[in-house]
Amino acid sequence: YLTGGKLQAEVLLRGSEPTLSQLVVERDVTLTERRSGPNERPPLKVTCDHLFLRQPNPTQALLTLTGEPAHVEAGGMGLDGGQIQLDRAKNHLWIDGPGVMSVEGRVNEAAATGPLAAGGPMRVVWAGRMDFDGQAAIVSEEVVARTDAQSLTTEWMQVRLDRRVDFANPQSDQQPEVATVDCRGGVLLESKETTP
Predict the structure, then answer these.
(1) pTM above 0.90?
(2) Which of 16-20, 75-79, 118-122 has the lowest mean pLDDT?
(3) Which residues, including other chains, have CB under 8 Å from residue 49's CB and lie 6 or more apart?
(4) pLDDT tens digits, residue range 30-86?
């Protein structure tokens, strides 16, 4: 399901089959993938000001989303940035510049052996860049990760999930958990204590 203020599509004929080659959508863009089945939430949802899709063949899709911010939700994760790039065939998403990543699942017990304690959802904010391969996100420059109980500040962080988010076939019923958090460049960890 796709909405926007202006839509321009380029369709190529491959033999007798029409194939979408390029798509540009502008102004209040919303893209929601729907699947039949019991899932309540859509497996992939995109909101942005400008969407550019280049699809050299039906199995490859290169997507550029621009907005203030552009937003992607997939498999229990949310990503925000001024410009989000997605190579769906390689399952690679990246943001050059500041952004935010939210993981709805918990920080699991394995990650708790690192700098963060086990607990609720995690939100990561950065100023430099983010690269995400579906399971590990590497973020850099002025990185701050927050959970309900802690805040961690560093210059470089890798957040590894316990399961892969597949942008070609996202599943909304599977929420990944944070499996490991690795940091470089110094770490400042602040904890909040709650009294029962």
Answers:
(1) no
(2) 118-122
(3) 26, 27, 28, 29, 66, 67, 68, 70
(4) 988 766 555 455 567 899 999 999 988 777 889 999 999 999 987 778 899 999 999
The type of residue at 97 is G
User: Would you state the structure tokens that stand for residue 73, as one six-digit string?
Assistant: 């939700």
Q: Are 96 and 129 in contact (CB under 8 A)?
A: yes
Strands (DSSP E) found in the chain: 2-3, 6-14, 17-33, 44-57, 60-74, 77-87, 92-96, 99-103, 122-126, 129-132, 136-146, 150-161, 178-191
Own/partner pairs, 99-103, CB within 8 angstroms, 24+ separation? 99/69, 99/125, 99/126, 99/130, 99/139, 100/69, 100/124, 100/125, 101/77, 101/130, 101/132, 101/137, 101/139, 101/159, 102/77, 102/78, 103/76, 103/77, 103/159, 103/161, 103/176, 103/177, 103/178
